[in-house]
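Q: Mind making up any chain with structure tokens?
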Amino acid sequence: MAEVPLGPFEGTPITVYSAKGKNVRLHVARACSQLRTSDVRTAQVSLRSAVMGRLCSRCTEWGLWARPTTALGMFLRALGGVGLLYQLQSYTEPDDDECWTQEEVQAAAELLGSESDVADEEGDEDDGQEAPEDAERLRDLVFSHWRGAAESLYRGQATLAHFSWLEDWAKPRLAAKAQYLETLRSQAALFVEPAGLLVAAAAAILEMLRLPDEDAAFAVLGGSGKVSAGLSALWRRWQSAAESGWEGPRARSYISYYLVQDIRGNRKGYGEARTGAARLVEAWEEQARVLATSGEGRPTRLVTARLPEEGLDLWAQGVVAVWAVDADWGRRTVTLDVPALVADRLLGPSSSMMCEPSRGEAVPTEPSRGPAGRQGTVSPGVFDDTPVFDRRPITAEHIHALRSFSPGADQLYVVFSVSGGAEVLPLDVIERRLAQGWVGALVAGAADLPGSLMGPWARTVASDHETGENYWTDGDRGVHHPRFGEEFGGEDGARQAVRHTYRDAEREPNLRLLALSRGVHDLRSLDAGRERVLPLAVWRGLLAHDWLDLAPFRQPGADRWRSGSGVPLGSLAVAQIYATNADPGIEGKGHSPLCRHAGERGVAASDDLLTIVDLLARDDFDWCSKCGGYAVRRLTDTQVSYYRAAHRLHDLARQLGDDSRHHDTIDVDTVISQLEELADWQPIDEEGWYTSDSWRWREAIRNIRHKAERTRRHDAS
């Protein structure tokens, strides 16, 4: 690590821990197992080569020098573990534990090839001598190391693309890896039969000829329809096997058995059908050989192939091993000089690689270098390790680096743009916006929220959850309970998020996501088109699964069960309601995004957004009977307080109603005292509410108080 150029991170202040002494080892983690002292000293030093040289080996490789989402954290994560330093040291020379000589590879390849030729000439599928296991094992080892070396070189070059100041330092190491990779490729090519690759290419483009479904040899299969279906399936099975490798016909002689696999071997006609199937497979093999040799003499073609990340099939591995003439492993791009028939298959729709005709230009063998002085993708100024004022706009390359080197790449981020101001967005949404020309900067992620706020809050929520302290543990659940309605509030949302987080290590990260997403205007914007960008526990914290009781806000009427008190909605008018389907004209019931019938997926971009005004305006919604049809976004403290006050007022109005049968049991003085308390109600987060709703609220209280006073005069008389 001390030899690695630090580039723009040179001089970055970091916190280290150590024992007493001048030349003691430094540690980046106070809890490091190699820091064996009770008197730990803490210091802030500048990150330089001398400091790197004094760090303990454990901290050097696995220590958390900086938060993972900072540029320095990503740089160090890219270096350590199985990152860049490991890749630069891997596959540079033969492995001591599994080494072999060129002579051993040559001998194994000749042995396997000669036995295959002898078996093909004899044409005996049952008596053919098996290739020695040692030769086959060596072949598999060579191919495995070749694939591993190619992947390691790709990963090393892909990492260096984000840290351009390391290119000159890493160049000799990359050259050693490339040289060893070429050695492995040439050794792998010894095991591949080029003629077999041509036959496989021919088999892939062969069209099925008319099948002999009227041949009496296949009568045991049944009618002509069954014979035709069986022969068609046999053709597909043969073609799939023939196009997938480079082995000779002997390796596919077993295929004829599949035509009669469902027929007893002692049944009359079984042998004739098996013999006929073998003749048919042999005829197809001959067609493929004829087509493969028909292109002899045609000039070869240059094809540029892009290797897929999920790997290559056996035939494509053979093609690359035999005919690769140049490669840029950092881009997974290979130039192939192949026979025309192979080029036709590579450029066709069935190719396992993205290929295009080469223009005759050699593929660069080194990573392309940017302008002189370019710092690279991961450097201070983009992420949260510089003042917000100095942030640079984020690009798609930055997001790629964040996903590659940061374990929290799927979390939410606060971004700022002059077009949209400050927003909270998932990375996928940011990436789509960048593709459309959006310009913005990252401000912070969920992991960057102040620990002085998040730590105490997380401990308090966890304590409440463990002790079970909530409104529902009390016996009295009436509307006059001081905690009535809290199941819709944010505090209960935090407890629900913790309750549905089943791993202790995920509690605080989920609470951070919850805190950051609470300020999002429309929760549908958090849907990035992938399954559960936010954990389900976070959605439980954002949405209340209980049904709202809207009785206080309905207008008075003759229906005793649906009659309300006409209480104004006040701050509840803007409360958000989310449903999978709120249109009665569209088939299908509406569900809460947390309903099991909706997959418990959280809010999706296609969901409907309503308000309580919409719920009161109509009564023809087709709601799910299990979940109520919708989920309420967690109410603010003011909204919970108003919801509680409205229900208290509604309860007092019902007690004093004209048809009430319990006037004799009403304590009028208590009612009037409660009305005076409600008259003084004010929003928690506002100085006052001087709107028509506040006037209607006080008017409703005056009307109920008049009823209470009439009741008191009536009782006194």
